[in-house]
Amino acid sequence: MALARADRPQLADPVARPPHRSLTAAPTDTGSAVIPFPHRRSCTMPLTDPQHARLLLLYAAEPPAPALHDFVAAHGPIDAVERIRAGTAPPAALAEITRPDPQLDDALRAIDAETAMLVTPEDDDWPLGRLAGMAGHGLGTPLALWTRGSASLTELTGTAVTVTGTRFTTGYGDTIAADLAYDLAQTGVTILTGGALGIDGAAHRAALAGEGRTVVVLPCGIDQTYPPQHTRLFAQVVEHGGLLVSEYPIGALAVQSRLATRCRLLAALSAATVIVEAGQRSSALATAKAARTLGRRVYGVPGPITAGTSAGVIELLRTGQATVISSAEHIHYQEGLR
Question: What is the mean pLDDT of the chain?
Answer without folding.
Answer: 86
